Amino acid sequence: MTGDPIVLNNKTSKKNIRDCAKDELESFLHSVGEPPYRASQIDQWLWQKNISSFEQMTNLSLQLRSVLKENFDLNSLDIHSSQHSNDRTIKYSIRLPDNCLIEAVLIPVDNRVTACISSQVGCSLDCTFCATAKMKRTRNLSKWELYQQVFILQHMSFQHYQMPLTNVVFMGMGEPLMNFKNVVNCLQMISSPHGLMMSPWRVTVSTSGIPKLIRKLADQQLGIRLAVSLHSANQEIREKIMPFSKRFPLDELLESLIYWYNKTKQKITFEYLVLRDINDTHQDIDQLLEYCKRVPSKVNFIEYNPVEGDDFQQADPSVLELYKKTLKRGRIHSTFRSSRGSDIDAACGQLANKLASKSSNSI
Ligand code: SAH
Fold this sequence. Notes:
Distance between the termini: 43 Å
Radius of gyration: 22 Å
Number of helices: 10
Helix content: 25-40%
Largest sheet: 10 strands, mixed
Bound molecules: S-adenosyl-L-homocysteine
Structural class: alpha/beta
Order of helices and strands: EHHHEEEEEEEHEHEHEHHEHEHE
């Protein structure tokens, strides 16, 4: 082929090549006289090597590279800025192609490095104690935007801690199940031999608890782990601190979790904040135990991270001790996760793009 590049796409905005399904790419390649196996070569550049320009696809002819460039965009995420915590946690503010900003966090603990990634710009839900909930949901992240956060953090993990990521958690900004299709496609890519080849059981999706979508996720049989932000096993209290939960009562949530367990044989992790004057009574503790007994589960108590404008407070340490003792007596395993990166607002519930307004730091 010689002369002017072939332009099949005469729309002013070109499609991002990472948004193309493989068969779509194959039929495009067919239309320009290329064999289907080129789609696999291109896929490798896009998902395993994470290249940022068509010129880097060096096993394709110059001609094909230029045809691709004429017909597709190849967008990448940029690190807008980063902040380093005293505990070695690093928070990244990441710019999406439409200039929206999201945050992703790299958390080293002992011999593990966890990447905490965002699933939405803002959040669809309204948990009263969470900073992200105060931003309105602007949009869902696409599959490649989700995936590229993991890729970028993998690269940064090598750079800062000289080791690959050991875990990925969907616990950043947003409600992952409200971005279902893209999150599932990204999860598949993370564990795929065509992607990062990470074991799915090292990946956790954290949800505020949407029963219908928990069932749907169980049906996908991805081998991942599920965490549910419970925070209260009392419907009235839960509704007060997580108003959206009016639509998803605890009984219905429990049924979906039993379904999850029956399908996946994976225990559920309940995430739980112990807040002063909210859920710090004997009744709260007993209700949690009763709830946990009804489905194979464990509890991860998380430290409350102060959010500007909120007047919640972590309950007295003796209450947490009582929670742990009571659960232990009922044979429910529990752990306590102390905050990481709270000095840079990188801890749970503190992601709200504050970094965006600060000047860029070097990475
Ligand atoms: N929407 C999902 C994932 C994002 S939040 C979910 O709700 O699970 C990740 C975790 O941080 C959730 O357990 C959430 O309840 C918790 N969280 C939110 N605000 C917090 C805060 N101020 N302090 C501590 N944890 C918080």
